[in-house]
Amino acid sequence: MKIKPGESLKRVIERCRRHMTIAVAESCTGGLVSNLITDVSGSSGYFIGGVVAYSNDVKKDMLGVKAATLKRHGAVSVETAAEMARGVRKRFRSRIGVSTTGIAGPTGGSAQKPVGTVCIAVCARGKTAARQFLFKGSRSAVKKQSALAALKMLEEVLDRRAV
């Protein structure tokens, strides 16, 4: 997925300025999605806030991710990402929730979930879209690709109004 940060971000911001509010739950991106959004002047008009939910306890306690989901699917799964997006949307009372969870590396991967595996979800209008990606490169490259993919997914959801 080729993503140009400036273009996607500009389109997302344009749509969000139309009375949308966004909250973000980030694990592997460590606040990078929030940073990209807040780098734009005027983002306080639609960006409510975010949570860096690196530990499973934070995912459960702050975002309402079920212990059963973490046990059955793991922290890096579309199921966990979906619950994170729904949870941050509810906690911050925003119209849209966005989440990222993954393995940025260089350690932490497995045969089933190699380094670069990232799950992203967007929750809006009571529906949630979640996808799994496999990014390549260094830790910082995986984080950057993940953050840009989250913005691209958000853009797609806003475009389609499917979620």
Features:
163 residues, alpha/beta, Maf protein, five-stranded mixed sheet, 6 helices, 44% helix
Q: Can you describe what's shown?
A:
The chain is of the alpha/beta class and 163 residues long. The chain is 44% helix and 21% strand. It has a 5-stranded mixed sheet, with helices on both faces. Strand 1, helix 2 and strand 2 (47-52) form a beta-alpha-beta unit. The protein starts with a helix and ends with a helix.
So what's the CATH class? Answer: Alpha Beta
How many beta-strand elements?
A: 5
Which sheet architecture does the biggest sheet show? 5 strands, mixed
The percentage helix is: 40-55%
What is the overall number of helices?
6
Low-confidence stretches: none
Strand content: 15-25%
Category from helices, strands and their pairing: alpha/beta
Query: How confident overall, as mean pLDDT?
Result: 90
Level-2 CATH architecture: Alpha-Beta Complex
How many domain modules? 1
CATH superfamily: CinA-like
How would you describe the shape? globular
Strands side by side in the biggest sheet: 2-1-3-4-5
CA-to-CA gap between the ends?
21 Å
SSE string, helices as H and strands as E: HEHEHHHEEEH
Rg on CA atoms, Å: 14 Å
Put the structure in a nutshell:
This protein has six helices and five strands. The chain has 163 residues and is α/β, with parallel strands linked by helices. It has a single domain (5-160), classed as CinA-like (Maf protein), CATH 3.90.950.20.
